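Working notes for the structural subgroup meeting. M.R. asked for a predicted model of this chain before we commit to crystallization trials. I am recording the input and output together here so anyone reviewing the notebook later can reproduce the run.

Input as submitted:
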Amino acid sequence: MSAFNDLKDMAPLQIWPGLIGRALTGAEATLAQIELDPDVDVPEHSHVNEQIGILLGGSMIFRIGDESRNLGPGGTWIIPAHVPHSVTAGPDGATLIEVFAPARDDWADREILEPRPPAGL
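Returned structure, recorded in token form:
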């Protein structure tokens, strides 16, 4: 197995309805490129993983704990483990990069979608 890959060669995973991800998972962390469809709602949830991200394109309203923020490109976030959070994508959807630690082993059972070019590439 090579240490190198290309995002365009990675199969997208159906993480939530209206949300796909391409995950690069190591022993300790997962780096994910995420695409949200326009106006999609990701319901409140929490997980054992710390989550750190940056919005590359589009917009979204992100609620973390009791704080909510409208984010545009360049917006960042840090979500400690077990903190409830939710997202609503803007009218043009959203493209982002996130890091999860520990690795997202719970994504192993997600549906693998047909290959398609990642947003923004």
